[in-house]
Structure formats: structure tokens, C-alpha cells
Design a protein that fits this description.
Elements (H helix, E strand, L loop, with lengths): L5 H10 L12 H4 L3 H22 L3 H11 L1
Length: 71
């Protein structure tokens, strides 16, 4: 563990330091603040609209009968 890395190991350690930068590590959820809340709210809206449309539309037999009389 305490063994020195040597020149090659030190070279690669310095090359990989950028991967541990605070701006790159697990910051994607902070990049878009409010995106999670917006996705949840939009999902609830879509489910609500789907349920409303299912309850408020007339049955298929009524709509098909009305469509056949108009032709």
C-alpha cells in the first residue's frame, strides 16, 4: 500500500484527477434543479387527464351510432 507509484503511476494519477473534480462527480441531479419535481407533476397531470378522458367520453356504442347516422 505504501509502495511508491513510480513515474508512470504518478503520470496516470495526475491524468485521472479531473475525474474526481466536484463539478463532475454526481452533479447531474444538481444541473437541472426542479426537473424531478416537474417530471412528477407532469406524470400526475397525464394520469389525471387520462382518467378524466376515460370517465367523460361517451361509450363506443353511442359514438359509433351517432357517426353512422351522420353519413
Amino acid at each position: 500500500m505504501g509502495k511508491p507509484l513510480g513515474t508512470t503511476g504518478e503520470f496516470f494519477r495526475r491524468r485521472d484527477e479531473w475525474r474526481k473534480h466536484p463539478m463532475l462527480s454526481n452533479q447531474f441531479r444538481h444541473a437541472f434543479p426542479g426537473l424531478g419535481i416537474a417530471v412528477v407533476a407532469f406524470s400526475i397531470y397525464c394520469v389525471g387527464e387520462f382518467a378524466y378522458n376515460k370517465m367523460s367520453t361517451p361509450s363506443h356504442s353511442t359514438s359509433s351510432a351517432a357517426a353512422s347516422h351522420s353519413h
